[in-house]
Structures are given as C-alpha cells and as structure tokens.
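Lecture notes, unit on protein representations.

Consider one protein chain, 270 amino acids long.
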Amino acid sequence: MAEPAVEPDARTIPDAVVPPQERPTTGQKIAAYAVHVFTASGVVFALLAAAEVASSSPRPKWVFVYLAIQVLIDALDGPMARAVHIKVRAPRIDGRTIDDIVDYLTYTFIPLLLVWRMGWLPSGGIVWIAPAMVASLFGFSNTAAKDERGGFFLGFPSYWNIIAFYCGVWHAMAGPWTGAIVIVLLTILTVLPVRFIYPNLAPRPWKLPTMIGALLWLVLLAWMWIDYPTPPAWLMWVSLIYPAFYIALSASLDVRSRQISATAGSSASR
C-alpha cells in the first residue's frame, strides 16, 4: 500500500523552492535576527560582571546589577522569539545555543567566581565551587532538563546567581560555612533526578501564586541590595520564605506527578 503524501515542512526547504508568497519578508527576517542579537547582548553584561569580579576592588552590588539585567533579557527574549516566529524566519542561528551559553556564564560561572573571589567560602574556595560548575554543565547539556509540558526543571536549575547573592549576606552574618553547605547540597541536587517548578509554566492552580510570590521576593531582594551585604537580619529571614515555599511546592508536585504517572502506567499495563 502506498504511503500517503506528506506535505514538507517549509522550515526545511531552501528559500529558492519556497513559494514567494510563503517566504518571510526582508522586514520579518530583520526582526527575527534582531531578537537573536538581543539574546546575544546578554554576553555584554556577562563581560561587565566578569570585569568587575576581576577588578582590584570588586563591588558585588554592581556585579549583581549586571547579572540582573541579563536575567531581564533572558525573561524577554523567549516571548519575543515566539512573536517573530524566529525558527522559521532566522533558522540558521540557534537561539537556544546562544541562550544556554549566556545563561551558563551569568547564572553559574560568574556568580560562583564572585563567591570565590570575595572569599565568602572556607579556605580552598575553588574546591567548593568547581563541582557546582561541573554539575551545572551537565544540567545545561541535559536534553531532558526542561519539561515544559509538565512545568518542571530536572535537577536544581542552576540559580547560582541567587545563591551567590545570599552567600555574601550569610558570610557577613555568620561566616563562610553556611554558604559552603548550601552550595554542596545544591550541587548534589543539580545532578539528581529531582524536579523543581518551572515558574512560568507551573501547573494550575499554582502558577499564579508562584509568579506573584516570585515578584514579591524580587522586591525583597532589591531591598536587601540597598544595604548589601549587611541588610537587616529580619529582612534576610523574610526573604527566605519564598525559596522555602518554592522548594516545598516543587517537592510536593514532583511526588504527586510521579504517583499519577505510576498509576497511569499500571493501568495501561493491565
């Protein structure tokens, strides 16, 4: 029996054989490549942050400003890419590769480098941060790291920029060991098959409280930044409520999701 005809995907056909009316216009292509440039601009702020870390007198507050700007770029480029149909109109550039490179620099490498440079860890600080850097490389290269349909990250999603921010506060308040212990625990969680909520894609009814909580938490972090690294102790403790909520909710939804999957698998095998 003959196979049914399958219409080819326009994204895989050279421009020369795509009907003119279906080809992206020059303006559409420029818009798509402009989004790629916007994503790549995050590396400029990575460079500024790295230059501050490498200076003779690093100013952590400015490092976190540069990293925060890149986080904003990272939050905006996805919706922009979808709006301009970037995979169709600028297919030769892989935006995900650009995104992963810049994210590794700004979410992992530079924040952990800052922690080491500032001496916020016990002696031999490289011993503490090197495993975290390696573990995050495996996290970024794991093709199953993002379960966008389920709304989860697999393993701790390398939010080392946030951990670095807290490490400075913890070092000022209690010395280097709090940060070191947290880094070790999260390094282990980075490579374990545990799941953390993907805030933008959190399952209902948890998406709204997760997003609202995140916004309120960011306000608290900005408040802490004013007197960084010695904000009021009460402010630091209040700011930890949301991370505790996030971890607890992630664990609860992960367990529930696995139970549902196991029940569905058991029913299907009968």
